[in-house]
């Protein structure tokens, strides 16, 4: 996970995104349907995570240097995520999104209490 993006994203009353796992080596101006820049996991009622969506991401400055319109894939235009300074497009392939397959937030996705991480530092007093 990318530092600063290592939490569940939710906008109460609108819906959530979930947990983004970004492959930073893919952040360029190439759009590849089969290689999205991020995969998104959502949590269930047991606080387990499951694959929910993919997210295509394009750095704004790199894209705008050679194009006058936002990128597109499958006839869908990316939208500007100002916080990330990226053009983004979600595809809710594994989680149905009542707002639409390509909408950023999914009203059926919420962020529960923090997930239990049982990684290599679990129980390590130094953190």
What does this protein structure show overall?
A hairpin with a 5-residue loop joins strand 3 (38-43) and strand 4 (49-59). The longest helix has 5 residues, at 60-64. This protein has a six-stranded antiparallel beta sheet. The chain has a domain at 9-91. It contains one helix and eight strands, in the order ββββαββββ. Helix content is 4%, strand content 32%. The relative contact order is 0.20. It has 127 residues and is mainly beta. It starts with 8 loop residues before the first strand and ends in a 36-residue tail after the last strand.
Strand order of the largest sheet: 1-2-3-4-8-7
**Residue windows where pLDDT falls under 50 for at least 5 positions:** 115-127
Strand segment tally: 8
State which percent range the strand residues make up: 25-35%
**Main sheet, how many strands, which sense, barrel?**
6 strands, antiparallel
Mean residue pLDDT = 83
Percent in helix: under 10%
Give the SSE order as H and E letters. EEEEHEEEE
How far apart lie the N and C ends? Answer: 17 Å
Radius of gyration over C-alpha positions, nearest whole angstrom: 16 Å
């Amino acid at each position: 996970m990318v530092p600063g993006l290592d939490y569940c994203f939710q906008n109460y009353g609108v819906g959530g995104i979930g947990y983004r796992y970004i492959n930073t080596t893919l952040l360029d101006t190439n759009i590849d349907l089969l290689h999205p820049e991020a995969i998104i996991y959502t949590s269930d009622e047991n606080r387990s995570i499951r694959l929910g969506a993919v997210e295509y991401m394009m750095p704004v400055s790199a894209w705008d240097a050679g194009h006058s319109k936002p990128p597109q894939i499958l006839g869908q235009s990316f939208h500007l995520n100002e916080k990330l300074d990226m053009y983004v497009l979600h595809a809710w392939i594994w989680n149905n999104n009542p707002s639409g397959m390509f909408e950023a937030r999914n009203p059926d996705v919420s962020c529960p209490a923090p997930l239990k991480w049982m990684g290599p530092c679990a129980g390590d007093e130094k953190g």
